[in-house]
Write a structure and sequence with these properties.
2 domains, 6 strands
Length: 597
């Protein structure tokens, strides 16, 4: 057999092993290792997708007090809670695509997917995670093709392995966030952007790939509005590197404007603001707490003093955790060293500057809109750049490794730098995963969900048969109530008087608020000092869970809030108290009716 034939067989064998690993890891994460969704954004987008599957359009069952205020200011006092339930917060693409998947599997029928008595993981959570994992696997394929075109198959293969063993990618996939769909669209857009840059330098026809890149980048913006910053960066770079100068930038900006036109018109119609409720995300970056604005019926002022200094500080602060934001891919930060290397091929050189410009604009957007939650923040864009920046980092390592001239004396070391880069990046994931897999398999149905604070089976058991479909449950985790119980849920407002005001609105519309659920999201997963700050008037309610849990063996449960004179009106509306204890952590259900569940 010829050497060429042997090398072909070896290449095919390696690819087969890679695909087996790819499918195995995907199946493992959506089955044994899966704990359920843990992202508020992911749960609400899934709930919107279920409404899409039912033909109700882009509506949410999460009622934000800020949305009530916006609709009443825009439409007038005739505005209803249904108007406030129109989605003006989330970008539409993922709910639409996920809605089509839900429709295909019959997930529009909530009763068919309710968890059994001893089932802790909601089955539709697996569908949401599976959708993200498919996007991740497709992203790996597109990235491989792109890096093969830029460099060679060795660097492309190493980049694919870095993606496959990136723990952050798998964590994001199982959270419900849209970042894996964004990664697919971003890498696809970059593929055609590189083709366009390449054609410009070779006197080819860059217009067609520039149009295709614009389409993917426009879809990226429809997946998450913060991606507009990335696209602005691409438009700037395209004006510099794609001929005729400026045309590709105009094309992509036009595509984004056309794609965003319908959502913007919808937002204006509902809220009177082109950004809808999503514009209040500014409070996350510039004031540190989006929930202040979202939970208030009153207009919350935005402090813009020292705006420039604040943004610069937040941009610089991102660099301190850049390695984690890049998914601990060791080669990704080396991209910044590769900026100083004179690549012979002009298109390779120009594309790295394109990536840099897009990344700088993305960093600016993340500074303005916030990165609460760190590397798993809903606004995280750094991880989109990690694979391609990692490819440039690997190329730079290859250049430096070649200068050591080890190949003539030790040929087996020719690719040692690639092996080492993959090993360092993958080792945390590979060392942890077998132990997690064994523990999950041994645990079986007892494998714990993401509690605290989310307990799908407990919410289903407590709410679904208690509240009618047209009734409302207020909560500190309305996204979880909406998704796991298929009931409308009000995000508890900042003040008790505002809760009473919304109760009156709901009563007038014959869609009453019939209960309040308070969970460890406000009393068990953050310090009590933060609880006091964010839930000031509800503070005694927040203590009820742990007080009742500590006295659960006695005949008279300790309900601290009953001693709070400021809560007389609250207890008039919700006189019944039901402690819900799950896996050693409490949740409390205050109800308006006496019901056993």
């Amino acid at each position: 057999m010829s050497n060429q034939g042997s090398s072909n067989i070896a290449a095919l064998s390696l690819r087969a092993i890679f695909f087996i690993l790819l499918i195995s890891l995907g199946a493992l994460h959506v089955t044994f290792l899966f704990k359920g969704l843990d992202s508020a954004h992911g749960m609400e987008q899934a709930a919107i997708a279920r409404e899409v599957a039912r033909g109700n359009g882009l509506v949410t069952k999460v009622i934000r007090p800020a949305a009530i205020r916006q609709t009443r200011e825009n439409i007038g006092d005739n505005a209803t809670l249904a108007d406030a339930s129109q989605n003006t917060y989330h970008a539409p693409l993922k709910p639409l695509l996920l809605g089509a998947v839900f429709r295909a599997i019959g997930a529009n029928d909530f009763e068919s997917f309710r968890p059994d008595e001893n089932e802790y993981i909601y089955q539709l959570d697996r569908v949401v995670a599976g959708f993200a994992i498919v996007c991740l696997l497709l992203s790996i394929g597109v990235t491989y093709l792109l890096v093969c075109r830029i460099f060679d198959s060795k660097i492309a293969g190493a980049t694919a392995l870095l993606m496959l063993f990136c723990e952050l990618f798998w964590t994001i996939s199982m959270s419900g966030l849209p970042q894996m769909l964004m990664l697919l669209l971003f890498t696809s857009g970059c593929y055609f952007a590189y083709r366009s840059i390449e054609s410009s330098e070779e006197e080819g026809l860059p217009l067609i790939p520039a149009i295709l890149a614009a389409i993917f980048f426009a879809l990226l913006c429809l997946t998450h509005w913060i991606a507009i910053w990335l696209v602005i960066g691409y438009a700037v770079a395209a004006a510099m590197f794609i001929k005729p100068r400026g045309l590709a930038g105009i094309i992509v900006l036009t595509a984004v404007i056309l794609a965003a036109a319908l959502p913007v018109i919808h937002n204006i119609k509902v809220t009177g603001n082109p950004g809808g409720t999503a514009v209040l995300v500014l409070f996350e970056g510039l004031s540190g707490a989006e929930s202040w604005a979202m939970r208030s019926l009153d207009t919350v002022p935005l402090n813009l003093r020292m705006l420039t200094t604040t943004i610069l500080k937040l941009m610089v602060a991102q660099t301190t955790n850049l390695y984690a934001y890049f998914g601990s891919i060791v080669a990704a930060p080396i991209f910044f060293i590769a900026l100083f290397h004179p690549f012979k091929k002009i298109s390779i050189s120009h594309f790295r500057w394109t990536l840099l410009i897009m990344w700088v604009f993305s960093t600016l957007g993340m500074a303005i809109f916030g990165l609460k939650g760190g590397e798993t923040s809903p606004n995280q864009l750094h991880l989109l750049f990690a694979p391609l920046m990692g490819a440039y980092g690997l190329a730079m390592l290859s250049v430096l490794w070649a200068r050591l001239q080890l190949s003539p004396t030790a040929p087996f070391l020719s690719n040692a730098h690639l092996v080492l880069a993959v090993a360092i990046s993958a080792s945390p994931f590979l060392l942890r995963m077998p132990f997690d897999a064994v523990y999950a398999i041994r645990s079986g149905n007892d494998f714990p969900p993401n509690y605290p604070p989310y307990a799908p089976s407990l919410l289903d058991k407590s709410v679904v048969d208690y509240a009618e479909p047209d009734e409302i449950i207020a909560s500190d985790q309305p996204w979880a109530v909406a998704w796991y119980t298929d009931r409308r849920s009000l995000w508890i407002p900042m003040k008790l008087t505002q809760l009473e005001e919304i109760e009156n609105i709901a009563e007038d519309e014959e869609t009453p608020i019939v209960g309040v659920i308070l969970s460890p999201i406000s009393s068990g997963t953050i310090p009590l000092t933060q609880t006091a700050r964010f839930y000031g008037e509800y503070m005694s309610l927040m203590l009820d869970g742990w007080a009742s849990f500590s006295t659960s063996s006695s005949s008279n449960l300790s309900i601290v809030s009953r001693q709070d004179s400021d809560l007389k009106a609250f207890y008039t509306s919700y006189p019944q108290v039901r402690p819900l204890i799950f896996r050693g952590s409490p949740m409390i259900f205050y109800t308006s009716r006496n019901s056993n569940f």
